[in-house]
Design goal:
The protein is of the alpha+beta class and about 160 residues long. The protein has four helices and nine strands.
Length: about 160
């Protein structure tokens, strides 16, 4: 059967729309939910809230100097596939405005991989940060809270 005969048959059977729309469609982004508390992202530390208290960036710098190395070693590495992602970040209870920064790991990663950042995340607020990730290794953190540099590996 020729392509023309096949298409005429589809039209006669009302199947042309199915044949025309059977191709690739834009995929919905994957939503990654992250919750910030004082000096940490909960999901990155396996849901453990360490109960840190902070009134300023300096408090978190002191806390991370004391416990950051051990916490980072035990932290969860997010594994994602390439494509569109929305990082939905919530400031659960930090008493000042926060942000979010996702970027390539290392000098080459920062130069060659996409990044996204933003601020103004007030107490109780949630913001979305959309990005199309390529294969590679990334870090994410909040420079205003500040948190540790948590790792994401994107492979597909």
């Amino acid at each position: 059967m020729s392509n023309t005969s096949f298409l005429k048959g589809l039209i006669a059977a009302g199947g042309l729309a199915i044949a025309m729309t059977g191709g690739a469609q834009a995929a919905e982004p994957t939503v990654v939910e992250l919750t910030q508390t004082a000096c940490q992202f909960l999901e990155s530390e396996h849901g453990v809230d360490h109960g840190f208290k902070t009134a300023s960036k300096a408090d978190c710098e002191t806390i991370n100097t004391q416990s950051g190395g051990d916490r980072l070693t035990k932290s969860k590495v997010l594994e994602l596939t390439p494509g569109k992602h929305v990082f939905r970040v919530t400031n659960r209870d930090v008493p000042y405005a926060l942000g979010f920064w996702l970027r390539g790991d290392g000098v080459i990663g920062r130069a060659t991989l996409p990044s996204v950042s933003g601020g103004g995340l007030t107490t109780g607020a949630t913001m979305d940060y959309e990005i199309t990730l390529k294969e590679g290794e990334y870090l994410y953190s909040c420079p205003l809270n500040p948190t540790l540099d948590y790792k994401i590996v994107v492979k597909g």
